[in-house]
Specification:
The protein has 5 helices and 36 strands. It starts with a helix and ends in a 32-residue tail after the last strand. The structure holds 2-acetamido-2-deoxy-beta-D-glucopyranose (3 copies). One 2-acetamido-2-deoxy-beta-D-glucopyranose binds at residues 72, 111-113, 528. One 2-acetamido-2-deoxy-beta-D-glucopyranose binds next to loops.
């Protein structure tokens, strides 16, 4: 009897290890965040900001590949709140994604503990508040995922590692912006740009002469693409959203909404201070702001004109985008070279074409994908799916190809099968740059060009060294095509990173489904899951195994 029990117990332990083992042996990092309102003055006027532990921007998250992050978020705002993780894949675990399609918001005075694992990832990302247009008030911060000690990094360790959060900014409070959008208007032009929460020369990066530094730049803004450059210095691109790139040198880099880039900069110029410049792209007027690159041995402040950005428009940017490629021999999060994954040799099982538009529906400005303008349901989709609550959403409530017919409001969810390998084409007929993000995944940017995408566009795809990333731009009257392995079960948000467009419907959810219904493919519902809407009062005890 006892032996039998022992065997049984060992089998149970073994089974638990198989399910949770990967998580169990990796370090845990415990983080507590208090979300409050606070006065901030980024453009010289007092505003109500959203602070994390008293800070704007919020604290940096540092992790090593495969670390577990236990982030307990206390909401002291007067409104429900959610944090999401731009580019963090949360494998098998859309329960932690922190968007309203997967999570109930944290009510005022309450807390929620996110349990994330940065599985098989390296690189530069950011977090942001995803609900109620809070992003316009702050609440964002940088995420750095460092390589494990024995994994080679394709450049020498830099002397310093700076997070640079750039983006456009409005002086208006987020309630006011939200009311503008809800009453059916588009947003006005932003009032300025910020670098790490500060306006003109408000932030200083100090470097020692002769040494090389890593700058991790993310566009955390609401509406504008930006161009980034450093007076008198070259930037060597080394990483884009977790991919090590060919190390090309740039004078200026276009960074679209939601994107993150790492560059190396050597302090090889005469000792003085230099402008670090960010300016808006494809806008009129062009907004500009600067911060300071201060040489530690410099006694001279910044001087000379602020260097201008590229004056040619789309072609310059498109060519630059095409030059950003995967370094096939460099390691990523694992020791083997990135190029050992031959994405270009895999047959796609399915092509999804997503066309954005800006329709007026019921007299109000909306934004849509394939004629569907997303409306949030009363219950998070992930919970409705899990508890089988009928009527919250319908699968394939959005076509997988544009119909170009009249636009309508719908809670749009597209069905997809686990382990399919899909081609997604973003087709943009509007005259503005689009920026798309897919949660839970990174994808290969195989092509982008002007005009209409057709099957023959595939002849010019980069099937060898396209970069893998999670946010990509689509130029005006152009298309961008990506390949994506559906290796992550869950309910995943596909959205415009233009925050007004996202808020007014340019988003959808992709439900990646595995019939196996197994914990190997998808983590069980967390014990602390918040339940709201029609899921309120349900039991979160796991129903399957
Ligand atoms: C709120 O914080 C407490 C104390 O750390 C924790 O035990 C609890 O799980 C948190 N609540 C949620 C819903 O995560
Ligand atoms: C690619 O990565 C390797 C490290 O594996 C590095 O030596 C090489 O310089 C990189 N190539 C380019 C073009 O950046
Ligand atoms: C991909 O498709 C081609 C043509 O249909 C076929 O010859 C090839 O075997 C397929 N490759 C794989 C890996 O399935």
């Amino acid at each position: 009897m006892r032996n039998c029990c022992k065997i049984l117990c060992s089998l149970i332990v073994l089974a638990l290890l198989l399910v949770h083992g990967v998580t169990a042996e990796n370090p845990y990092r415990y983080i507590t965040w208090k979300i409050t309102y606070g006065d901030i003055y980024p453009l010289g006027v007092k505003q109500q900001g959203i602070l994390i532990n008293g800070q704007f921007p919020g604290p940096q998250i540092d992790a090593v590949t495969n670390d577990n992050l236990i982030i307990n978020v206390y909401n002291y705002l007067k409104e429900p709140f959610l944090i999401s993780w731009n580019g963090i894949q949360q494998r098998r675990n859309s329960w932690q994604d922190g968007v309203y399609g997967t999570n109930c918001p944290i009510l005022p005075g309450n807390n929620f503990t996110y349990v994330l694992q940065v599985k098989d990832q390296i690189g530069s990302y950011f977090y942001f508040p995803s609900f109620l247009f809070h992003k316009a008030a702050g609440g964002f911060g940088g995420i750095r995922i460092w390589s494990r000690p024995k994994i080679p990094v394709p450049f020498s360790p830099p002397a310093g590692d700076f997070t640079v959060l750039v983006g456009d900014w409005f002086k208006a409070n987020h309630y006011v912006l939200r009311r503008t959008l809800e009453s059916g208007h588009s947003l006005p032009s932003p009032d300025g740009l910020l670098i790490n929460g500060r306006g003109w020369n408000g932030y200083t990066f100090t470097v020692d002469p002769g040494r090389t530094y890593r700058f991790r730049i993310s566009n955390v803004g609401l509406t504008a693409s930006i161009n980034f450059r450093i007076q008198g210095h070259k930037m060597k691109l080394v990483e884009v959203e977790g991919s090590h790139t060919l190390q090309s040198t740039y004078d200026a880099l276009d960074i679209h909404l939601g994107q993150s880039y790492s560059v190396l900069v050597t302090a090889d110029q005469p000792a003085q201070d230099y402008y670090i410049v960010s300016s808006s792209r494809f806008t009129s007027p062009v907004l500009t702001t600067t911060s300071i690159l201060h040489y530690s041995n410099s006694y001279r402040g910044v001087s000379g004109p602020v260097p201008g950005g590229p004056t040619t428009q789309i072609d310059w940017s498109l060519n630059q985008a095409r030059s950003i490629r995967w370094n096939l021999t460099a390691s990523g999060p694992r020791p083997n070279p990135q190029g050992s994954y031959h994405y270009g040799k895999i047959n796609t099982s399915h092509t999804i074409i997503l066309a954005n538009s800006a329709p007026v529906i019921n007299g109000k400005q909306r934004y849509a994908v394939n004629s569907v303008s997303y409306v949030p349901p009363d219950t998070p989709l992930k919970l409705a799916d899990y508890f089988n609550i009928p009527g919250v959403f319908y699968l394939n409530s959005i076509p997988d190809n544009p119909t170009y017919s009249g636009a309508y409001l719908q809670t749009s969810v597209m069905a997809a099968n686990f382990r399919d390998f899909v081609e997604i084409v973003f087709q943009n007929w509007e005259d503005t740059v689009q920026s798309w993000h897919i949660d839970g995944y990174s994808f290969f940017v195989v092509g982008m060009d002007g005009g209409q995408w057709t099957a023959s566009s595939r002849a010019r795809y980069n099937l060898r060294d396209a970069v893998a990333r999670s946010s990509v731009q689509v130029y005006p009257k152009s298309w961008t095509a990506v390949y994506m392995a559906l290796d992550n079960v869950g309910m995943w948000n596909i959205r415009s990173e233009n925050w007004a467009r996202q808020y007014l419907g340019q988003q959808l959810y992709l439900r990646v489904y595995s019939p196996a219904n197994s914990w190997r493919d998808e983590a069980p519902i967390p014990k602390n899951a918040l339940l709201c809407g029609r899921a309120r009062g349900r039991h979160t005890r796991p129903l399957r195994h």
